[in-house]
Amino acid sequence: MSVVNGYWARWRGTDYPASPDGELVRIYATSPVAGFEQVRTGRYRRFVPRAELEWFGYLRTVATLGGEPVVLVAERDDRVLVEYGGDAGEAPTWWAGGSPAEPGVYRIWTVSSELRGVRRELLT
Q1: Which of 57, 74, 76, 108 is the most exposed place for a label (fewest CB within 10 A)?
Q2: E-assigned strands of 12-101?
Q3: Would you give the distance in Å from CA 26 to the centre of its chain?
Q4: Does 53 share its domain with 68?
Q5: What is the pLDDT of residues 81-108, one digit of tens each?
Q6: Are residues 63 and 45 in the same domain?
Q7: What was the pLDDT predicted at 100?
Q8: Are 65 and 93 within one domain?
Q9: How far apart are CA 81 and CA 108, in angstroms?
Q10: Vertex 109: Cα angle to 65 and 107 (nearest 5)
């Protein structure tokens, strides 16, 4: 499993991490690509007009834990940090003994085998 959260874009059939910049979008690669400029070791960038992108949006990794929708925030070995935004500040049943990250937002490390329906969601 790979946790992905952030802006992404598809340009000429390839998906790239991206960053909005007005009517342009910065797309990034980790190895040399024709037309990209090297900005540091292992980081290449190209500015692309939004109109040239096949899609652009915020990609996040989501799943369910104990029947509740969660966003996967980070991963370490077989454990995953998940975030849940609850209604009326009530913690979900799987949240035992933790404290909220902020009012109504809960984070907890769990084993990845407890997650169901892991998928990526594109928010445009």
Answers
A1: 76
A2: 14-21, 24-29, 37-40, 43-49, 55-65, 68-76, 79-85
A3: 17
A4: no
A5: 999 886 655 667 777 766 677 877 888 8
A6: no
A7: 76
A8: yes
A9: 6
A10: 75
Domain end call among 30, 57, 84: 57
Q: Is the pLDDT of residue 76 over 70?
A: yes
Q: Which two tokens stand for residue 33?
A: 């690509």
Same domain (yes/no): 67, 113:
yes
Spatial separation of the C-alpha atoms in residues 26 and 28, rounded to whole Å: 7
Same domain, 65 and 116: yes
Give me Rg for the CA atoms of the chain: 18
Residue whose token pair is 């169901």: 116
Q: Are residues 24 and 68 in the same domain?
A: no
CB contact at 8 A, 121 and 8 = no
**Domain of 109?**
59-123
- Cβ neighbours around 19 below 10 Å, total: 14
Report how far apart the first and last C-alpha atoms of the chain are (Å, whole number).
23
Residues 6+ apart with CB under 8 A from 116: 63, 64, 65
Q: What pTM was computed for the model?
A: 0.81
Using alpha carbons, select from 66, 69, 77 the residue that is nearest to residue 112.
77
